[in-house]
Amino acid sequence: MNPTSAVAIARQPAWRPLCGRQDLVANSGVVARLEGVQVALFYLPDEPEGARLFALDNRDPKSGANVIGRGLVGSLAGERVVAAPLYKQHFRLQDGTCLEYPEQALAVWPVRLKGDAVEIDLGP
Amino acid sequence: MNSKLASDLQNLVVIGNGMVGHHVVEQLVERGALARYQIHVFSEEPRRAYDRVHLSEYFSGRDAESLALGAATLYQTPGVTLHLGVPVLEIDRARREVITAAGCFPYAQVVLATGSYPFVPPIEGAEGDSRLVYRTLADLDTIQAAAKNARRGVVVGGGLLGLEAANALKSLGLEAHVVEFAPRLMPVQLDEPGGQALKARIESLGVGVHLARGTQSITPGSEYRYRMNFAGDEFLETDLIVFSAGIRPQDALARQCALGLGARGGIAIDSQCRSSDPHIYAVGECAAWNDSVFGLVAPGYQMARSVAAQLCGEPADAFVGADMSTKLKLLGVDVGSIGDAHGATAGARSYRFIDEASGSYRRLVVSADGKHALGAVLVGDNSYFDTLLQYVQNAITLPADPSSLILPLGQAAPALGVDALPASATVCSCHNVSKGAICCAIDAGCTDLAGLKSQTRAATGCGGCAGLLKQVFEHALTARGISVDKSLCEHFAYTRQELYSIVRVEGIETFEQLLARHGKGHLGCAVCKPTVGSILASCWNRQIQEPWLVPLQDTNDTFMANMQKNGTYSVVPRIPGGEVTPDGLIAIGAVAKKYDLYTKITGGQRIDLFGAQLHELPDIWAELIAAGFETGHAYGKSTRTVKSCVGSTWCRYGVQDSVKMALLIEDRYKGLRSPHKLKFAVSGCTRECAEAQSKDVGVIATEKGWNLYISGNGGMRPRHAELFATDLDDATLIRYIDRFLMLYIRTADKLQRTSVWRESLEGGLDYLKAVIIEDSLGLAGELEAQMQLVVERYECEWANALKDPEKLKRFRTFVNDQAGDPDIHFVKERGQRRPVRAEELTLITTQELV
User: Fold this and answer.
1) ipTM (interface pTM)
2) Measuring CA to CA, how many Å separate B721 from each of B602, B731, B767?
């Protein structure tokens, strides 16, 4: 068992409102900001398991620019990914892993739709 | 899984992080050395290993990072420590310690990979900018600084590195000269006629070549900074001098700790690459085997593999000398040297081909019995190299007439088919990959070239074997009955052309429909989404901001602007034909001033405005549209510009009104989306000031009408447009362009320019003329009707988006905040702002904190 995930499970999630459902764009990304943190939000309403929402760090480690939220969403070998708009490297929406440069993972945060509100847990 | 404690591991010290030192570490890690050793790498340079073979590209656009070798993660592997900028000062062999400025490190084994240093002959007056060298990135920075105020530069040394250095000076915009002591260029690799051919070629590129001249002293010059004085009162003035007169093995550490040396320097090694101390190995250019130093990367890699294998307890190939064959492009000239290039073998005979007109030379050296090739020299055309190398390396029996191997290749070229190569034939000598190893990888399921390269590492060293690798690959696939997979991506088992027909025939208007009927999965990817987006636009020309089209577009089409490196956008209003009123110019200027946009004139007679943030785009466009402008589609694979000269209206030579025709063309095709961008131009007379022959569609006025040129291209691979039809009236001209563009859109591959498309067309220009002019396929009416639909549905995308609050919602930097991105910083330069560079950012942050 990975000890860090055990801690994450034990902690009470601290949901905080981020933006509204109407701010999301289906099958694409938008960017929201909370206390200086830039969050790229990707909304996939028609997934086989139901609507999915993902929150990733908006900063592209390769270019240093805050552009991840403007990348193209797609799937590669069964993984849902976003292609960074400048150099086109792919990040897994699920956990932020970069497929081309594994050392460049993006931070991801738990995020959910509560009624018409988008809520995020940026951690302690 | 490494269960050993760190204390169980022995220290393995690698001194030097050049190409060969890096390869040692790579090979060690790959072979599992970390189960036995902690690896410490010491490098006196401040950067990790980089590609010295392609060093001169540093001046033609490549930066230090892109020259770096392999993945940076290698040196983040636990158990591997890279000490950059830490030179090893001494080796204490008695205590088995290396002594550095950062402290002492005990070792069990040492690998010396200290490389070489440039030899600078002792010449009176050589110092500072008259004593530059060309070896490291730091040297290149010094040369670049010296070149700032210089007009002319001289390289001393006409060998391989000297010519590379001359190329570097040329890239820096200097008038370059090469001074060589020997009576010919590249005396080691080339013979006399080869040297002459190379000299002729290089001189025709504007590089001065001065042979058989030894520099005796350097004194202050009168027209340039320095004067190089040669024997017999001859001299050459110059602003800087780069010495590239050979290398010397960097054996200072070996001398300090009294290891055995070669007769002409270098750390003496045996066939196991071991020095006189069994705990110390030496590899690459610092080592001397049999008193010879090997100044190429392939033998260095060979030594690195041998040492890594021994250190991991694996059987290792002995190093018993190396093939010094080289294939190069020097100053853009092909040069090849194989095996016994000088015909020194007893009884050797030569075949020679000399073409003084083009400066080409080829020599084939064969054995006394005429059965086997021993060596070759090539100048001007390396397409013969791979075949000749295989004949020499694999002792393949020569054809009855060996001269056929170096004679100009006719229609029935007697090239050695890859079929004839034995499985043991080396394809990639940098990484020692045989044809057999490549075929094994293919048999194991590797069916794409990129995968083959990363799996076998073939063609990832100097890259010289890339062409041969591709041939072996394609041949092996065909032989195995595997057809090359032309699927667009994992979601569509169709080519772009096939998808285009499906969309047309079935009248499909959405990605979801196409995917559901003909694809796999439900999301698509960054390859198929923009491709299908482009096809849908070419066919139906709906607004790309419609909700069902938005997720298909790349970021530039999504936001209808061009994303720049810091995440801001540039904006290009359409300026049809390059014609703009003073009021239009003032309006653009006012917008640029208001939003503080960096302003630059483009090559297509328009104005590009840089540095706008996402949330500013709608305001900027509202003002531009109010001033009468439309979107310029600079962000799309679509019609860009129609460049024109002023034509008969103003010009004394003009024979037609080229501006009026440019406006007609630009107005008709604006908003047309295609497999790649489309550029047009119209010239008012044969003087061709609008450069129409470098455009996808070029129109040049004649006394009787218009000549139409097609499929030209500028850019990376320029291509002259071809004359397609002459003396056309306006209506016929437009009809032909309609048909040409729609045929291209229908049949081209994704991201294929008209030039490449035209070259790949079976039947060539004649076929194209038959289809477009004579309507041989009966398609003309259909193509024209399809174009007419696109033309009728045109609407400025920005004007459309501004009318719709739902579409405008996308143009927010943050959806929950009005602010801009706080991480975007600019500095002023030449009166305008530009993105801050990473190294300037720390400065700004500190200032802001203060």
Assistant:
1) 0.90
2) 21, 21, 16
CATH annotation of B120-245 = 3.50.50.60
Partners of residue B521 in chain A, C-beta under 8 Å: 75
Q: Which residues of A touch B816 (CB under 8 A)?
A: 18-19, 23, 32-34
Edge-first strand order for the sheet with A37-44 is: A28-34, A37-44, A52-57, A108-109
- β-pairing, B240-243 vs B152-156, is parallel
Q: Select from A22, A33, A60, A94 the residue whose CB has the most chain B CBs within 10 Å, as the one to mutate to test that interface.
A: A33
Q: Which domain holds residue A60?
A: 15-120
Beta strands in B221-359, from DSSP E residues, in sequence order:
226-230, 235-238, 240-243, 247-249, 267-269, 280-282, 287-289, 326-330, 333-339, 349-355
CB contact burial B511-550 (16+ within 10 A = b; e otherwise)? bbebbeebbeeebbbbbbbbbbbbbbbbbbbebbbeeebb
Would residue A3 count as lying in a domain?
no
DSSP one-letter code for B489: B
Closest chain B residue by Cα to residue A46:
B522
- pTM: predicted TM-score of the whole model, two decimal places: 0.56
The reply to whether residue B563 touches residue A33, judged by beta carbons under 8 angstroms, is no
With respect to residue A70, please indicate whether it lies within any of the assigned structural domains: yes
Residue ranges of chain B whose CB lies within 8 Å of a chain A CB = 72-73, 76, 490-491, 521-526, 528-530, 547, 550-551, 553-555, 558-559, 563, 565-567, 614, 809-810, 812-817, 819, 821-824, 838
Q: How confident is the model at residue B215 (pLDDT cuts 50, 70, 90)?
A: very high
In which band, very low, low, confident or very high, does the pLDDT at B362 lie, cut at 50, 70 and 90?
very high
CATH number, domain B6-117+249-311, options 3.50.50.60, 3.10.170.10, 3.90.1150.10, 3.30.428.10: 3.50.50.60
Inspect the interface and report whether the beta carbons of B525 and A46 lie closer than 8 Å.
no
Could you tell me whether strands B373-379 and B333-339 are parallel, antiparallel, or unpaired per DSSP bridges? Answer: antiparallel
Domain B417-483: top CATH class? mainly alpha
CB contact under 8 Å between A27 and B547, yes or no, is no
* Numbered ranges of CATH 3.30.390.30 in chain B: 323-408
CATH of the domain spanning B323-408: 3.30.390.30
Roughly how many angstroms between the first and final C-alpha of chain A, as a whole number? 22
Buried b (16+ CB within 10 A) or exposed e, B441-453: bbeeebbebeebb
> What is the domain-level CATH number for residue A31?
2.102.10.10
Q: Which residues of B touch A86 (CB under 8 A)?
A: 563, 565, 567
- B637-795 homologous superfamily: Sulfite Reductase Hemoprotein, domain 1 (3.30.413.10)
Residue identified by tokens 């020194």 is B344
Residue A7 pLDDT grade (very low, low, confident, very high; cuts 50, 70, 90): very low
Q: What residues of A are in contact with residue B553 (Cβ under 8 Å)?
A: 72
Report the residue of chain A nearest B564, measured CA to CA: A86
| Chain A residues contacting B via beta carbons under 8 Å | 18-19, 23, 25-28, 30-34, 36, 38, 41, 44, 46-48, 59, 63-67, 70-77, 80-81, 83, 85-86, 88, 90, 102-103
- pLDDT value of residue B806: 87
d(C-alpha B288, C-alpha B272), whole Å: 12
Contact in structure between B159 and B187 (CB atoms under 8 Å): yes
Decide if A8 is inside a domain. no
Closest chain A residue to B837 measured between Cα atoms?
A64
CA distance A81 to chain B (A): 8
**CATH tag for B560-631+798-850 (out of 3.20.16, 3.30.70, 3.90.320, 1.10.10):** 3.30.70
A67 and B563 in contact by Cβ < 8 A? Answer: yes
Domain count of the fold of chain A:
1
pLDDT digits (tens, 9 = 90+) for B675-708: 999 999 999 999 999 999 999 999 999 999 999 9
